[in-house]
Structure formats: structure tokens, C-alpha cells
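Support reply, case 0932

Customer input (verbatim):
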Amino acid sequence: MKFTYNGTASTAYDLIVEHRPAHTTPQKVIETFSIPGRSGNLLYDTGAYENVTVTYQVAYKGSVRTNAVNMAKWLYQPDYCELTDEYEPLYYRKAVFVSPLNVADILGVAGRANITFNCKPQRFLISGKSAITPAISSGDSVVNNYEDALPIITVSGSGNGTLTVGDTTITITGMTADIVIDSERQTAESGGQNANSLISLSNGFPVLENGSTVISWTGGITGVQIIPNWWVL
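Our regenerated output:
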């Protein structure tokens, strides 16, 4: 079996995954409050989850020193990268390698290591990386069978327009090219430049909640494309 990180498969370094990672459910972020004179804490569910760790136990043949140097160059990245494996081929994680790379030397001709990633709590569906098809028309509904998702929405048109996604209304002014609205990053871009000044949000960045969400638009908007970013725990 193999895993792929930042576009490179573990087999490129002659790694053999000996044991599949444990499936870990992320811990919910629960805040607790105490009230003087009252027994027991009050709980507040923030709706968020902690990161999880994913560990691959690997072995390989060859020079420990050479492989360790090459693996370090591959694994140490400055930000989250996509992580997939053959155990769960329908999903990917957003992961970063942060643990030390400790490689056990076996008689100078082989090695073993635990490769641990710090991952965002979501298991994202690979199918959710693609735009929803067929193309969305104003008034259509998007059905989400998973957790509440933070989509990437590309708005085409010119001038002024209004896009409504469920309970959120996005007012756009002065559009001259496509505007890409990224709900996870909470940014808007047009032509590779920040375009937050061109949008006004009535209820925060749009969310595709579990269930059905109506998408509609008016004014100079001529089309909308949605990458849903579906995910599960």
C-alpha cells in the first residue's frame, strides 16, 4: 500500500506501508464554565473540532542516511498539503508533517520509520473537489448529504449583482471579471487579486448546510460555479 503527500507517492522513496493508520474521530471543541455555588460545569459546544494525527508505519530497503535526507525534503512543507492513501481512496486530508523524522537503521541496508501528519479534522471527499454538474441555474437547489461545507464559488458577469446562497446574500459591485469567493479562506479574488472590497455579505461567507440550499442571483451575474468541498468526520 502507499500514500501520496503533496502530489508525490511514498513509493517514490521505496517506502512500504506496513500498517494502515488508525481511524481517529476528532475531538470536539467544548468550552466549560463554572458558576460559583453551582455543582458541575456548564458546557458550550463551539461546533468546531480539533486536528487529528495520522501515522504511517513504513519500511524500505536502502541507505538510511540517503533516504532520510530525501524524505525530509519531501515531507517538510510550510503549509497543509493534500494527503491520500489507498486505504480510503474516496477521501483526502489536509495535512502537514510536523513530527521529527526518526529512522531506524537495520544493518545499514534497510530502515523503518513512523511518519506522522497533523491533519485538519475533516476527511474531504475527492468528488467534492470538482464543480457541481450539471451547471447551476438561478433558483436551483444544491443537496448536501454530508457535513456543513465551505464552498468555493466562482461568479461570472459584469457590473453589479446579488448572489443568494441559502440564508446568505452576497452583494457584488463593480465586477469586471470572474470573482472567486472562498468560504474556508474567507476571501474573494478576481484576476488573482484580492477582491474583498467588491463584495458585501449579509450573513458571513456562504455555507452549504446539510440538506438543501437554494442558489439564486440577479443583476449582472451571468453564471455561478460551485466547488462544494464535501467532507465527513
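We compared this against your earlier run and they match. Two observations from our side: The chain has two domains: 3-121, 130-232. The chain is about 5% helix and 50% strand. Please reopen the case if you see a mismatch on your end.
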